[in-house]
Amino acid sequence: MCSLIAHVDNGKVVRVQGDPDHPYTAGFACGKVNRDADLVNSPERLKSPLKRTGPKGTGQFEPISWDDALDEIASRWKAIIKESGPLALLGYAYSAHQGLMNRGLVNGLFHALGSTRLQAGTVCDTCCETAWDMTVGPVGGADPESVVHSDLVIAWGADLAATNVHFWALVETQKKRRGLPLIVIDPRRTRSATAADLYLPIRIGTDAALALGVMHILVRDGLANRDYLASHTVGFDKVEREILPKFPPARVAEITGLPVADIEKLAAMYGKAKAALIRLGEGMTRLAAGGQALRSVALLPGVTGHYGVKGGGALLLTAASCDLNYAAVRKPSGPATSRLVNHLRLGEELLNMKDPPIRALYISANNPAVTCPEVYKVQKGLAREDLFTVVHDPFMTDTAKYADIVLPAASYLETDDLYRAYGAYWMQWGQQAATPQGEARSNFDVAQALAQRMGLTDRIFTLPPHEAAKELFKGATGPAAKADPDKLFAGEPIHIAHDWAGQPFATPSGKLEFHSEQLARQGLPPLPDWNEDPLEAAEAAKWPLRLLTAPGYFQAHTAFSGVDFLRTREGKPCCILHPTDAEARGLEDGAAVRLFNDRGEIALTLRVSDEVQPGVVLVPGQRPTREAVAGTINMLCSDRYTDMGEGATYQSTWLEVAAWPAARQVAA
Ligand SMILES: Nc1nc2c(c(=O)[nH]1)N[C@H]1C(S)=C(S)[C@@H](COP(=O)(O)OP(=O)(O)OC[C@H]3O[C@@H](n4cnc5c(=O)[nH]c(N)nc54)[C@H](O)[C@@H]3O)O[C@H]1N2
Ligand SMILES: Nc1nc2c(c(=O)[nH]1)N[C@H]1C(S)=C(S)[C@@H](COP(=O)(O)OP(=O)(O)OC[C@H]3O[C@@H](n4cnc5c(=O)[nH]c(N)nc54)[C@H](O)[C@@H]3O)O[C@H]1N2
Ligand SMILES: [Mo]
Q1: Mind listing the pLDDT tens digit for each residue in 191-217?
Q2: Does the CB atom of residue 650 touch ligand 1 within 6 A?
Q3: S-S: 64 plus which of 68, 526, 541, 567, CB 3.0-4.6 Å?
Q4: Residue 343 CA to ligand 1 centre (angstroms)
Q5: Which residues pair with 182 in a beta bridge?
Q6: What's the first-to-final CA gap in the chain, in angstroms?
Q7: Closest ligand 1 atom, CA of 446?
Q8: Does 46-119+324-489 match 142-316+503-521 in CATH topology?
Q9: Hey, what long-range contacts does 337-341 have (CB within 8 A, 24 or more apart)?
Q10: Considering the domain 142-316+503-521 in this protein, what is its CATH number?
Q11: What is the CA radius of gyration of the chain?
Q12: Domain residue ranges of the chain, discontinuous segments joined by +
């Protein structure tokens, strides 16, 4: 969502930089995006459509024309729909192209076809989003630019220097200028943590206990804002009576692995601040009780009243406050409801869904053979001979190797689209900068071409991008609706923050909900709490190490894996162990090691570092199998759901690490 300037020579992007005139991007682009000229021009990009010639998964293909590819897809889909109905078709399209139309219209195609629908994003943010919605409501959080008014920033489970670079730049400036204090709460001593005034290396999965412990101290020390609690929140009395007595500092120290003194210090700094801003990350939600964790932390600014102060409050996402008419693109026609496939259960559903089974699969802007949990199941599902699979991607990915037809995708620099940030309050038109490489075509373009071949008559499938974009504004409300089309299409950034009057709450009560009736109705605890998860405890009794999964600095999932420079900067796919754990196993830095549990085994390069605590194995990012010694981390992760939002539980994974015999061949 950065505002970028692409320097173009003869239709070719030669350099990409942050736009110095944009108020938020302010001339800065991260180490990955700075290399996007290498990404668009990568020699590894697919040049033309391909048709499978060998067994699925082996990557044997021959080039075919676009017309032949699209004709074959349409005729196979028509035959399958005739025999089994549209539910036999699954569109598995996700977010690698962040444009509202290149992302949205592929969904629009499958919506109009009446196919089985993807419950998208459960691999990413549905847990944290649901927990936020149940607490604050479906509305954006604090404006990151309000940090100029903050007197304390807490990065809670967010490695800002890795995943939120523009906010990080603001925090660094405020630190330098006026000594703005920063607290980092993260099981990994991240780059952000090394710059913190207070760093708490919390045990994975214990954030709810810490947040409730802080509330306990705030109440004990008379630092709770009783006026704010009475006027803007519901249910705190119950939390105070039933929950907080269970979380005195000594017990919280036992649960979280943090010293009592640090917990007291955190509570004192937070309680005495006038405008503390909590930047919530998703890391704490990638495990069984992730919803409880995020919800408990999001309640904290209600106890101090910081939600009512400019520069205070909490920020998870901002997107919910941008009220465009998304349905114009995503739901042009088609039945109101349909059968759902959860994004993270692709393998399970390809293997076991019945009446009808999934017979045709279209994967776009997503690499589930690496990024989805239960990769062994995903591979097995994709290998089904009776499944007709199409993959649209700029690169030959682990997933594309299983396709019957692979279509070359244009990248964002080769398309026109409208972008709205989800971590800041800005929106912008991104103009096509370069001619697509080879025969690559955009998601938008391919969705329209397939819609026409499938006989869909919705107008959106006939409009050029800037006309389609105008449909998004019809019926839009709030600041986004006021965008002037002339300025928008000229590329001017549009500010979409509401006039500030305290954090709005969009819950059923209109207040911050310490007690949630909605959760109670779903059979979930209505009050925030922390309890040991029985399934996690059983795994922990069997295996000694817990998986910590966090982004790499130079690889974002697999989308940048086509850039040799970035692969080299990130280094070989690795795992990181604390020196005591490495020594106990006789393992040395740089060695190939085996990571295994009941699901299977993979092999990565070991790095030994005290940036993680003992008992934890950190695997940065998700890397393609060809880059690793063997396999990919999601082979070891289950497809169990989180407590809220049916999200992924990568970190509810326990395993062991041992030497990888040099003679050993790559695991099947
Ligand atoms: N173990 C573990 N697994 C995780 C996570 C974790 O923390 N731990 N994180 C999860 C999260 S948060 C997410 S969001 C997912 C991400 O998982 P994915 O959505 O699978 O992300 P990528 O691996 O980047 O794959 C995106 C693909 O889209 C392609 N692409 C890029 N641009 C375009 C385009 O314009 N059009 C088309 N058609 N294709 C394009 C890229 O080449 C790439 O192959 O992974 C999840 N998986
Ligand atoms: N470079 C890079 N940037 C990216 C991505 C990438 O892969 N690489 N992915 C993009 C995507 S799709 C997403 S969703 C965002 C995600 O970005 P974030 O919201 O920042 O979430 P995560 O990256 O999953 O994790 C952030 C931090 O949470 C910590 N953490 C893990 N478990 C716990 C816990 O139990 N408690 C606490 N307090 N902390 C914990 C991790 O160590 C990590 O440092 O980043 C986006 N930006
Ligand atoms: Mo994500």
Answers
A1: 999 999 999 999 999 999 999 999 999
A2: yes
A3: 68
A4: 12
A5: 153
A6: 39
A7: 38
A8: no
A9: 338/87, 338/114, 338/115, 338/116, 338/117, 339/87, 339/116, 339/117, 340/116, 340/117, 340/118, 340/119, 341/90, 341/92, 341/116, 341/117, 341/118, 341/119
A10: 3.40.228.10
A11: 25
A12: 46-119+324-489, 142-316+503-521, 534-667
- Give tens-digit pLDDT for 611-642: 999 999 999 999 999 999 999 999 999 999 99
Q: Candidates 32, 346, 371: which one to mutate for ligand 1, based on the most atoms within 8 Å of Cβ?
A: 371
Q: In the structure encoding, which two tokens stand for residue 650, read together?
A: 């990568």
Mutation choice for ligand 2 from 186, 203, 533, CB with most ligand atoms inside 8 A: 186
Matching CATH number, 534-667, of 2.40.40.20, 3.40.50.300, 2.60.120.260, 3.20.20.240: 2.40.40.20
**Other residues' Cβ atoms within 10 Å of the Cβ of residue 439:** 16
Range 117-137 average pLDDT: 98
CB of 550 within 6 A of ligand 2: the answer is yes
CATH architecture classification, 46-119+324-489? 3-Layer(aba) Sandwich (3.40)
Its pTM stands at: 0.97
Helices (H), 366-506: 368-371, 375-382, 443-453, 465-473, 485-489
Q: How many CB atoms lie within 10 A of CB 84?
A: 16
Helix (H) or strand (E) holding 238: helix 236-238
pLDDT (0 to 100) of residue 668: 42
**Does 330 contact ligand 1 (Cβ within 6 A)?**
no
Q: Which phi and psi angles does 90 have, rounded to 5°?
A: -125, 125
User: In sequence order, what DSSP letters do the residues of 130-174 get, joined into one string?
Assistant: HHHHHHT-SS----GGGGGG-SEEEEES--HHHH-HHHHHHHHHH
Cα-based angle 37, 42, 48 (whole degrees, multiple of 5): 125
Pocket flag, ligand 2, residue 281 (CB < 6 Å): yes
How many A from CA of 481 to the centre of ligand 1? 30
For residue 121, the CA-to-ligand 3 centroid distance in Å is 8
> Which residues share a beta bridge with 659?
593
Does the Cβ of 561 fall within 6 Å of ligand 2?
Answer: no
Residue nearest to atom 47 of ligand 2 (CA): 163
CA separation for the pair 412, 433 (Å, rounded): 9
Is 266 near ligand 2, meaning CB less than 6 Å away?
no
Angle between helices 290-304 and 126-135 (to 10 degrees): 40
Query: Is 256's C-beta closer than 6 angstroms to any atom of ligand 2?
Result: no
Which one, of 48, 50, 45, lies nearest residue 390 by Cα?
50
> Cα dihedral sign for 308, 312, 316, 317?
positive
Q: What would the two tokens of residue 487 be?
A: 């300025």
Distance, CA of 647 to CA of 285 (rounded, Å): 8
The pair of three-digit structure tokens given for residue 118, joined into one six-digit string = 């993807």
**pLDDT tens by residue, 215-247:** 999 999 999 999 999 999 999 999 999 999 999
Which structure tokens are listed for 548? 């910590």
Of ligand 2's listed atoms, the one at least distance from the Cα of 553 is 1
Nearest CA to ligand 2 atom 2: 556
Q: Is 292:127 a contact under the CB 8 Å cutoff?
A: no
Of all ligands present, the nearest one to the C-alpha of 95 is 1
Ligand 2 atom with the smallest distance to the CA of 557 is 7
Task: Please name which ligand lies nearest the alpha carbon of 392.
Answer: 1
